[in-house]
Amino acid sequence: MPDETLAADVSDCRDRIAEAEDLRLIEATRLPEGDAIGLDTPSLSAAVDLARDLGCRECYLVADRTDSGTVTRAAVGFFHDGVLHTASRVADRPPAGVVSADTDDASDGIDDEEALARIVFRDGRFNDSYTVADTEMLLNALDIEYDAEAVSLESVHRRAMELPAEE
User: In this predicted structure, what is the pLDDT of residue 110?
Assistant: First the structure.
């Protein structure tokens, strides 16, 4: 999703939540822990509309930004019948200075496996009960490109599991 479209979608989410009388916006650094259902919605705003239609009372919004304020990744989450439902979007291209999962450039001190671990960790679906296979499925669901021969998924998974203690 283009950067501008993602930023507009995040802004639209805020507006839609503000317009709903019984829906409260909770801006967070990550979505709540636990099992989640990933929604296949055309936009984050569509996920907010679904939350409103289902009568949810709270909607979580996570937006990762660069230092310049560009939205790089965003997610919406809400609980319905005790189950977390999520939708997430990622910008098409990484901003300048950020290591992409499909790049060999690690000049800023973060290797490709560390970058992948951070991407996985920041997704609201990642949790302590994940296995290496779950981590791989999450990378695929996020449509993250990486060189499977050069990247150790075990290392990505281990590093992602270690991040909560570090961040």
Answer: 47
pLDDT in tens, 54-84: 999 999 999 888 877 788 889 999 999 999 9
CA dihedral 27, 141, 119, 83 (to 10 degrees): 40
**Terminal-to-terminal C-alpha distance of the chain:** 27
Alpha-carbon 31 to chain mean position? 8
Find all residues with CB under 8 Å of 87, minimum gap 6, and list them. 38, 39, 40, 41, 44, 46, 47, 75, 76, 77
DSSP state of 31: P
* 45 class by beta-carbon count within 10 Å (0-12 exposed, 13-18 middle, 19+ buried): buried
Tell me, what DSSP letter sits at residue 42? S
Q: 61: part of which helix (H) or strand (E)?
A: strand 58-65
Q: pTM to 2 decimals?
A: 0.56
> CA angle 6-39-146, nearest 5°?
65
Burial class (CB in 10 A: 0-12, 13-18, 19+), 70: middle
